[in-house]
Amino acid sequence: MKSKRQRFEEGFTLIEAVIAVFILSLGSYLIYLGGHRLYKGFNDLKDRNLFITEAAQCNNLLKTSLNDIRFPYWAPSLSINSSVDEVTLQYLDGDKDSTLSMSFTENGFQILIDEENFIIYKTLSNGYIAPIINDKTITGLNVVFISEKENEYECKALFGGIPIVNMDDYE
User: Fold this and answer.
1) Three-state DSSP state, 43
2) Contact 66, 160 (CB under 8 A)
3) For residues 160 and 134, what is the distance between their CA atoms, to the nearest angstrom?
4) Burial class (CB in 10 A: 0-12, 13-18, 19+), 159
C-alpha cells in the first residue's frame, strides 16, 4: 500500500481535472453572459437617451416655430387629416409667403423653414402628425415620435395668435 505522501505527489486524477475544467468553463460562460447583458443594456440606454434628447430638442423647436404661425382671421382654415407624416404651414410670422414644413422621411424627422433653413433629427424617423382641435378649430399640432423599441414621445405645440394687421396696408 502507498503512503499518504506518495499519493499526494502523484497529482490529480483525470476525473478531478475534468471537473475543474468544467467548473472553470461554467464560470467563464456566466461572466461572458453577464458582460454581454451589461453591454446590451448600456447600448439600449444610449439609444433611448439619444431618442429622448432629440425628441426634447425637437419639442422645443416645434413649440417655438408653431408659436410663430399666426393665421390671419380672413385666412382659410387649416385642414389636416387625422394623422399624416408631412405638413406644410403658411403664415410664419403672419407672412402668407413664409412657410414651415415638417415631415417624417427615411433620413429622420425634417423641419424646413422657408426652404433655406432645415434641421434633420436622424433618430426620429417614425411617427405621425395630428391636429389639436378645440371647438372645431385646429389650434396646434400633436407630433408623436416612435422609437425602434416602441417608445413614444409626444410633442404638443400650439399656433400663435392672430397677427396685428396694419390697416394702412388695406386702404
Assistant:
1) helix
2) yes
3) 14
4) buried
Q: By the 8 A CB rule, do 134 and 98 touch? A: no
Residue 3 grid cell: 503512503
**Cβ proximity of 111 and 65 under 8 Å:** yes
Reading the chain (171 residues) residue by residue, the pLDDT tens digits are: 556 655 556 677 889 999 999 999 999 999 999 999 999 999 989 988 988 999 899 888 888 888 877 766 666 556 665 667 888 877 777 676 777 888 888 888 888 876 677 888 888 888 888 888 777 777 788 889 988 888 888 988 888 765 544 434 433
What is d(CA 1, CA 5) in angstroms, rounded to the nearest whole number? 12
Q: Where are the domains of the chain?
A: 44-170
Cα 76–chain centre separation: 33
Say which residue the cell 417624417 belongs to. Answer: 104
Residues 111, 118 contacting (CB under 8 angstroms): yes
Please list the alpha-helical segments (H only) found in the chain: 4-9, 14-67
Single pTM value for the model: 0.68
Instruction: Give me the phi and psi of 115, to 5 degrees please.
Output: 55, 15
Nearest 5°: the CA angle 37, 23, 40 is 5
Residue 152: name the closest of 130, 135, 127, 134 by CA.
Answer: 127
